Amino acid sequence: MNYNNFYTESIRDPEKFWATQADTIAWYKKPETILSEDKNGYPLWYKDGELNLCYLTIDKHVEEGYGDEIALIYDSPVTQTVKKYSYSDIKTEVAKLAGGMLALGLKKNDTAIIYMPMIPQTAFAMLACARIGVTHSVVFGGFAPHELAIRIDDCKPRVIITASSGIEVDRLIAYKPLVDEAISLAEHRPKKVIVFNRKLGAKVPFKKYDVDYETLVYGSEETPCVPLPATHPLYILYTSGTTGKPKGIIRDTGGYAVALLFSMKYIYDVQPAETFWAASDMGWAVGHSYILYGPLLNRNTTVIFEGKPIKTPDASTFWRVIADHKVNTMFTAPTAIRAIKKEDPDGDFIKRYDLSCLKNQFLAGERCDNATIEWFQKHIPIPVIDHWWQTESGWPMVANSLGLEKMPVKSGSATKAVCGYDIKIFNENGEEVGTNEEGLVVIKLPLPPGNMLGIWGNEARFKASYFDKFDGYYLSGDGGYKDNDDYIFITGRVDDVINVAGHRFSTAEMEEIVSSHELIAECAVIGIHDELKGQVPFALVVTKLNATMSHFQLQQEIENLVRQQIGAVASLKNIVIVKRLPKTRSGKTLRRLLRSLCDGEEYQIPSTIDDESIIDEINSVLKEHEIGCYKIK
Ligand code: COA
Ligand code: AMP
Questions:
Q1: Rounded distance between C-alpha atoms, residue 533 and residue 616, angstroms
Q2: Closest among 43, 175, 32, 125 to 453, alpha carbons compared
Q3: Of 144, 180, 185, nearest to 162 (Cα)?
Q4: What is the pLDDT of residues 384-435, one digit of tens each?
Q5: Is 0.85 topped by the overall pTM?
Q6: Domains of the chain by range and CATH?
Q7: Ligand 1 atom with the shortest distance to the CA of 171
Q8: Burial 2-16, CB ≥16 within 10 A → b, else e
Q9: Ligand 1 centre from 310 Cα, in Å?
Q10: Residue identifier of the C-alpha nearest atom 18 of ligand 2
């Protein structure tokens, strides 16, 4: 198959192209309207179609005679457990859980928060919601109660589904007290909390709203999948934007199903019954699309891995999982490979395993450095495919679409636009820039199926964040350029969003938290380069006049504040105290300049700067802390 013809067709006549793709899934009611618009002129796909994603991922395969095939492998080095579930096993469990949820009073269009570790019951909870039309919102288990409370108040769940504990390497983390605390912090009160007790010894304080997961499943009748409109919100997934408040990205059902199946076939080039492993967390977009819904739609075996690339027990764990479960295609973040490379530079662990099953390694979530790709290919000589996407898109926007045509890899590029994405590079005035010229990455509307439907409860933010800057275009928030062959190079965020170990955070949110410390007068949080995590947050703080606390103590207090409010995963560990922050004459903090200073890059002094002498002042503080160009190499 030829990429160019396929891609050109998808841009020339999107309606025809996606009408053909819609035929790949089993609808209860086939859509007659392929592309329409909502009241704000934003594209809606398959408006009058009806389907159910739990049916397409589970029941359909059982009906077609594949019930005994393995749908899910749970591999947990932290509990030393491996468990396999067939499509039939999952159907029974999910249908009963969904029946139990109905009995608790949940109904179509309710919302449910799922706050769980990487265990099969997380997938079952998501599928049970999808089965009965309850919109789920999975919250990453590393978020602190305060973050969970923000999400509870925003999406107002009727139930929260959780587990007794998670395990961070060798630390048991009791989830139930965190959920109770979040509920007490929130204004909205969920009716019930369904708790899966893992019986690992964590404290599970009992509250009146608690329901035991296993008792609920055991005592419930199986319930069938309900037909849902294609535009039914399957899930809300919160992600960081440029303000302190996370945005609840809404995913539809029909467009998402078509897009995911398309991606499994034409991007990942995965055949049904093969094993596909996305080593991410269910709390991120990758988890939703490529641990759960995508692989199961395509009748693949998926892997739920409860561990880390290193330390569980060591840097061999990925290779063991691949060899043990005959993984054919793998997806992870570059950070994970960097962590392994650091522990095992000569690839000694790799040599111990037969990895001949592995065909392709996909990477995404952050920019990938060449050294990491080269190290991987030196030790495992298979294609390493960088591809670019966002929570908002739900599936890749730039990739080497292997199922269409394997294109030559160019280092630093995620290859070319995926079918349906008409990607342009604009300058600030909305004019297309020339080849090899860096600018803002935008996408001409309509975005293809699968992309977000909106921001939960905030139409104005949806419009303002993505569509107001350039009429008729989606603003991605990333910078990049195209070369003469239409290869796209993503160079990084152009806003205040940062990527820490492939996890997305808002520096604005961190600034709000740091500023809430009683001794802080003002601060700037920026993302600085980190060898392992790609980026880590770094705070420059100006203290109040009466502040007498030592740098060390202030740093610890600020780190703790961020851990308590967002979670340890935000990794804000470093601060420096400065006398002033560099600002424009109108009072805007010059964050880009700060980033360059802290990363030791060349910088240009902006003409708008209020007072140039501040640069020397900041440089001397950075020198003292051995940061930026003063870093000891
Ligand atoms: N629950 C509670 N705490 C969590 C957590 C969770 N689910 N996940 C992470 N944390 C904590 C960690 O324990 C750590 O705490 P510490 O500062 O007290 O040690 C902190 O958050 C930072 O965690 P992490 O970012 O995982 O860093 P790490 O140093 O423990 O591990 C890597 C480094 C590279 C191994 C790890 O970041 C990793 O596996 N990255 C790949 C991530 C990924 O797959 N992203 C894909 C998204 S698409
Ligand atoms: P998230 O919404 O958490 O998936 O994060 C999306 C952001 O991650 C994008 O806006 C990019 O900044 C970054 N990102 C994802 N994939 C890539 C990639 N392949 N190359 C560079 N940046 C990436």
A1: 29
A2: 43
A3: 180
A4: 999 999 999 999 999 999 999 999 999 899 999 999 999 999 999 999 999 9
A5: yes
A6: 3-307+387-480 (3.40.50.12780), 501-624 (3.30.300.30)
A7: 13
A8: ebeebbeebbeebee
A9: 11
A10: 388
